[in-house]
Amino acid sequence: MERRILHLDIDAFFASVEQLRNPRLAGKPVIVGSGCIASCSYEARKFGLYAGQSLSEARRLCPKAVILEGNYFVYRCFTNRVWEICRTFSPSVDTYLDDAYLDLKGTENLYPDILKSAAQLKDHIRRETGLSVTVGIGQSRIVARMASKSAKPDGMRLVEPAEVLPFLANFEVDKLPGVGHKTAEVLKRLNIHAVGELRNLPRHGLEALFGKLGLAIYDRCRGLDTMITSKKEIPHSISRETTFHKETTNRAEIEGMLCYLTERIGYTLRQLGCAAKTIHLKIRYGDFEGEKASESLLEATDIDNEIHRAAVGILNRIYTRRVALRHIGITVSHILPSEKGRRSLFETGEERAHRLLHAIDKIRGRFGFSAITVGKAINLLGNLKQDSYGYVLRTPSLTK
Predict the structure, then answer these.
(1) For the domain 165-220, what is the CATH superfamily, name and number?
(2) Which residues fall within 8 angstroms of residue 365, CB to CB, at 6 or more apart?
(3) Which helix (DSSP H) or strand (DSSP E) does residue 158 occupy?
(4) What's this model's pTM, rounded to 2 decimal places?
(5) From CA 35, how far away is CA 33, in angstroms rounded?
(6) Contact between residue 275 and residue 234 where contact means Cβ atoms under 8 Å apart
(7) Extents of the domains making up the chain
(8) Which CATH superfamily, name and number, covers 237-391?
(9) Above 50 in pLDDT, residue 43?
(10) Which of 179, 209, 208 is nearest to 193 (CA)?
(11) Strands 99-103, 237-248: parallel, antiparallel or unpaired by DSSP?
(12) pLDDT band per the 50, 70, 90 thresholds, residue 57
């Protein structure tokens, strides 16, 4: 029996939630974002709007668009319910911001007609949440994801193993997961515009051009993907970022926000039982110019203070202009299973810090993240609203 993966993508997620919350927005062009578009309704996309586009350009193309800052806590409630429904369909679900992969291995007898069963899953989600989703089914994550892309919005597509190569062949190269703008530009200079044309490049050639990414591209353009779909899968990276409510040069506010974002990353790492070795930081000034840099630690860590210390060091290196910041983000990568659970005969300072963090995590898990405020994140008290989830940020980012 061929392995089957189901990719489920929530259509125009943030914008769709806002239209559900306010029925007067139904059928109208809706944008969620600050500075740039985080999500826009399909009514807005008809005007040429897309995620990542600047709001100034969006206003020019669609003057009647309704622009909202959004509320992550509300969106999180919707996704929690969608993922709960997905877990009744498959025992192995890997979730992201607004999409998920469901491994259907072992469910062949439950779902002999997979398209009929997938339609029932879509209907269940719509009844429970009001959201429409698109479903793609294939032999790998790559094929399933490309199938769902081709069926949007509110569609469904099954790609059988024999159809994979011709199905993928005509997609533009930048539609292949992992092929970003810069990579696509290199390929187009080589006169490679479609995924099918990528298969003419040898494995060693792609590796020479793009390193490990080249090896992944070699497999993906053939519909191959060895990634495991599992709740316990270790992510490649975890990020948290936000736009400040007001552009600021206040160092206490900037480091307070950086501390808070670091706490969110550390909490996620410990929940996964992981530690990270590389810290990335990016900033964007009020004039939309930006800087970014990274630093690798000697050992992987899941301790907030160690991640924050490295992030502040990077901030000191890249924040060199006397211009207010509008955006800041931190990402950790090179994520490994944590070894912090091991205890020595005599407790070290690191072990004490880890034990304290676990105690704080338990309190936050029970009473909400805002139950305890520590470190430089205290600088944000009184300046930002809080709910049970934590500080209410202007443009919060989920884990990537």
Answers:
(1) 5' to 3' exonuclease, C-terminal subdomain (1.10.150.20)
(2) none
(3) strand 156-158
(4) 0.66
(5) 7
(6) no
(7) 13-72, 165-220, 237-391
(8) DNA polymerase, Y-family, little finger domain (3.30.1490.100)
(9) yes
(10) 179
(11) unpaired
(12) very high
